[in-house]
Design brief:
The complex is a heterodimer of chains A (about 350) and B (about 425).
Chain A: E1 9-17, E2 23-32, E3 37-41, H1 48-56, E4 63-68, E5 71-72, E6 84-86, H2 98-108, H3 113-126, H4 142-154, E7 160-164, H5 172-189, E8 192-197, H6 200-206, E9 209-214, E10 217-222, H7 224-229, H8 234-239, E11 244-254, E12 257-262, E13 267-272, E14 281-286, E15 292-293, E16 301-312, E17 316-323, E18 326-334, E19 347-352, E20 358-360
Parallel strand pairs in A: 3-8, 3-9, 6-7, 7-8, 13-20
Antiparallel strand pairs in A: 1-2, 1-4, 4-5, 9-10, 11-12, 11-14, 12-13, 14-20, 15-19, 16-17, 16-19, 17-18
Helix pairs in contact in A: 2-3, 2-4, 4-5
Chain B: H1 21-60, H2 66-71, H3 73-79, H4 92-108, H5 111-121, H6 125-135, H7 144-151, H8 158-167, H9 174-179, E1 182-184, E2 190-192, H10 200-231, H11 234-245, H12 252-263, H13 268-275, H14 291-315, H15 319-327, H16 332-360, H17 364-369, H18 377-386, H19 391-415
Antiparallel strand pairs in B: 1-2
Helix pairs in contact in B: 3-4, 5-6, 10-11, 10-14, 10-16, 12-14, 14-16, 15-16, 16-19, 18-19
Classes of the chains: A alpha+beta (about 350), B mainly alpha (about 425).
């Protein structure tokens, strides 16, 4: 019936405003592939939840079109969209038992009693809670409620499941455990998932692709590794992972290399990604783990600095270095055999490869 | 707890100094408890002295019956040996005691009061005592029996003596029987009054029915308002709540009388309907001084007591529940009845029980707008207190009303559960 290569969801020129003055979502174009786990990641107020609510049908789009399986759904009410949804605080119905909660979408669809029973049992087994059928949500722990909520969103076999910061209320260990569990459920069922979160590590762990939102605009849409290693603008570089920022002015652009005069002093060779011409401002982005201490002499970027602070973190030593006029330059020294041992206030030589230092928009 | 002493199998936990931990804990909390008690004590004493004690005293009047024994002590003592089942008059001795008692009662001016009390049980007693008391001074030698019967032939009836003997007990069920339209016959049997003479049972029934209807009306009108209050933005809902509470800032009397101005025959609504030609001048509607008036005015007055508990419960229901239901495929109506409505039940319960209990004992509004068909049992209680001065009957009616409220509260607890009730 539908072409499997066709995206399951398309946002076409979608705009959203609540008050007619400010656009919360500015011209969104986004295709979500069938079977994909796509995460909308961004700080609060970036428009990601609004996009999810428009897709679920709880907020109308001010402009533009959203299609599901190729059909426009702007005028389809939420209960006819057939999209499963997991809410922030689970929204399990407190006056029903777990089994009744799971049976709810099936009863709405007028399935037979036996069919409902077998599906509920299967769903409970999927989330490993078969003995909890008779409990009420209030009698379950946060993690168990979370699993029931996931099971309820999946029990009626939707093509698409939306999850709105579903792990926000859980503690750290449980959150990580649930991340893997949701990921595995996604892989085994092949359902498409749109996941909203502001937690970048959650997004990196679970997603096939991540759409980074800021200020109502998708800043970058890529796979987790691309996003981390090849950020396309300063916001993404800053938002995903830790990042050293060096501000400067471009003095030369030559194919795959540009030369930047850093504000605090020092000439840095970098990879031009998102820059204007000579004389324009730029932000250099450099991951702390890509900086080496005592680099080889032929390294393109070598600088003298002073160790300001050492923080022992077990697997690595976080070192704050004053270099190129920036005293918040972070170097991660892996706690490997024969790692450099530094002392506070001691001089240090640091360096990095040209391709690891990305010149982005100012 | 594994270490609790009452399990018997474990040693009680001891504090560092070796005394049992519970004793130590109790001592450490004693100061806090005393402090809490001290804070509550003034109010508690106030309520005890000005509220609980008078009410207790008042309720006691529903069974209290000292007057006969106090006024006619000799007669009561002498009647002790008389067997009421023989159809004969008591002995001369009893008549002598009665004459002595009546002489004293006449001096103390209590004879007519005793007559009035006995009249509740057996009509004719009041006039019997009044007229005999006037003549008793002239009876100064035996045989007292003939003298009394000469004074009033009522003394020749064995029934008179039976009633006096029966009512001479310190406590009486008479007021309660009267409150449920029953009476004790001369022979002491309990029987219901004939239908035509029943007053209180139909009135109790009407009070309950109208209160239930008023509760239903406040629910039907209050539920949508509470829902609106709970869903609009806070800025608007605060304004709306002020409007819900506005009636509280106006005197109850003003609110009730303004309904009279609106609903009466020459009132605003009738004038309007006649003015625009819907009604002819002769067929003006009777909307006040009947049950309709009571229902309209009391629904308005009690509405906030339904809206506020409902609102406070609805405010805690996350809109995500209904959203979740819709995302699972439920139509808005199905989501409302299966998901939203069940979660408002604690508020409905709280509001309904509040409105019903307030309504069942309401006095001012039914008194002013109820006419004859819209008055409540409380109006009858007030009548017995202030007009007919039958305080015992008023107390019995009040006690029954209190009993009904307590039973309803208990039923509510059994069915819905008090823990499920949320006032806010």
């Amino acid at each position: 019936m539908t072409d499997s290569n066709e995206p399951i969801v398309r946002f076409i020129d979608v705009q959203k405003s609540y008050d007619g003055e400010i656009l919360v979502v500015k011209n969104l174009n986004l295709d979500i592939a069938r079977g994909e786990f796509l995460t909308m990641l961004g700080p609060s107020g970036s428009g990601k939840t609004t996009c999810l609510m428009m897709l679920a049908g709880f907020e109308p789009a001010t402009h533009g079109e959203i299609t599901l399986n190729g059909k426009p759904i702007n005028n389809v009410p939420p209960y006819k969209r057939g999209i499963g949804m997991v809410f922030q605080n689970y929204a399990l119905f407190p006056h029903m038992t777990v089994a009744e909660n799971l049976a709810f979408p099936l009863e709405v669809r007028r399935m037979g009693k036996a069919e409902i029973e077998s599906r509920v049992t299967r769903a409970l087994e999927m989330v490993r809670l078969p003995e909890m059928a008779g409990r009420r949500p209030g009698q379950l722990s946060g993690g168990q409620q979370q699993r029931v909520a996931v099971a309820r969103a999946l029990v009626f076999d939707p093509d698409l499941v939306l999850m709105d910061e579903p792990l926000g209320a859980l503690d750290k260990n449980l959150r990580e455990e649930m991340q893997y569990e949701i990921k595995h459920i996604h892989e085994s069922l092949g359902v498409s998932v749109v996941y909203v979160t502001h937690d970048q590590s959650e997004a990196l762990t679970m997603s096939n692709r991540i759409a980074v939102f800021n200020d109502g605009v998708v800043q970058q849409l890529s796979t987790p590794d691309d996003l981390y290693e090849r950020p396309e603008n300063a916001f993404v570089a800053q938002f995903i992972g830790e990042n050293n920022r060096l501000m400067g002015t471009i003095t030369e652009v030559n194919g795959e290399t540009c030369t930047v005069d850093v504000d605090g002093g020092g000439i840095v060779k970098a990879l031009p990604v998102n820059v204007g011409g000579v004389g324009e401002r730029t932000t250099l982005s450099l991951r702390p783990e890509r900086v080496t201490v005592d680099p080889p002499e032929n390294s393109p970027n070598v600088f003298e600095g002073t160790v300001e602070e050492l923080i022992y973190l077990g697997d690595h030593i976080r070192t704050r270095v004053n270099v190129c006029g920036h005293d918040d330059f972070i170097v991660k020294i892996p706690n490997a055999a024969g790692h450099a041992s530094l002392a506070e206030k001691a001089p240090v030589r640091v360096g990095w490869e040209k391709d690891d230092c990305r010149a982005l928009d100012a | 707890m594994a270490n609790e002493t009452d399990t018997g199998r474990y040693e009680p936990l001891r504090s560092a100094s070796g005394e049992p931990l519970k004793v130590s804990l109790r001592r450490s909390l004693r100061r806090q408890k005393l402090q809490a008690l001290g804070l509550v004590a003034p109010l508690f004493l106030f309520v005890l002295v000005t509220f609980l004690a008078p009410i207790g005293g008042m309720l006691f009047r529903s069974v209290e019956n000292q007057i006969v024994g106090d006024t006619l002590p000799r007669t009561v003592a002498a009647l002790g040996e008389w067997n009421p089942n023989v159809q004969e008059l008591p002995d001369e001795e009893v008549f002598a005691a009665m004459v002595a008692d009546l002489k004293i009662a006449r001096e103390a001016r209590t004879a007519s009061r005793v007559g009035q009390r006995l009249n509740y049980e057996f009509s004719g007693m009041s006039s019997l005592f009044r007229s005999t008391a006037r003549k008793v001074a002239r009876i100064d030698e035996p045989p007292y029996k003939d003298a009394l019967i000469k004074a009033h032939k009522g003394w020749a009836e064995p029934a008179t003596w039976k009633v006096i003997q029966r009512v001479s007990a310190k406590y009486t069920p008479g007021y309660f029987l009267a409150a449920v339209d029953a009476e004790q016959t001369v022979d002491g049997d309990i029987r219901m009054l004939p239908d035509r003479q029943r007053v209180y049972l139909p009135l109790f029934w009407r009070t309950m029915l109208l209160s239930a209807f008023i509760t239903l009306m406040t629910f039907l009108l209050g539920f949508p308002i509470a829902h609106l209050l709970a869903t609009v933005p806070t800025r608007i809902s605060n304004l709306l709540i002020i409007m819900v509470l506005l009636p509280f800032w106006t005197s109850l009397l003003v609110r009730t009388t303004s309904w009279i101005a609106l609903l009466q025959k020459e009132g605003v609504i009738n004038d309007l309907l006649v003015g625009i030609g819907i009604l002819s001048d002769e067929s003006r509607l009777t909307m006040i001084h009947n049950a309709t008036g009571t229902i309209v005015a009391m629904t308005h007055i009690l509405l906030p007591f339904m809206v506020l508990p409902l609102y406070s419960v609805m405010k805690t229901i996350s809109p995500n529940y209904v959203r979740a239901a819709k995302s699972l495929g439920a139509t808005p109506a199905y989501a409302f009845f299966k998901v939203y409505f069940p979660q408002t039940v604690p508020g409905i319960g709280a509001g309904a029980i509040l409105v019903f209990i307030l309504s069942i004992g309401y006095y001012i509004t039914p008194e002013l707008v109820g006419g004859t068909s819209g008055t409540f049992i409380s109006n009858r209680i007030a009548y017995n207190i202030s007009s007919s001065l039958n305080w015992g009957l008023a107390a019995a009616l009040g006690a029954i009303l209190l009993g009904i409220v307590i039973v309803l509260y208990w039923l509510y607890d059994k069915i819905v559960g008090i823990d499920n009730m949320k006032m806010g």
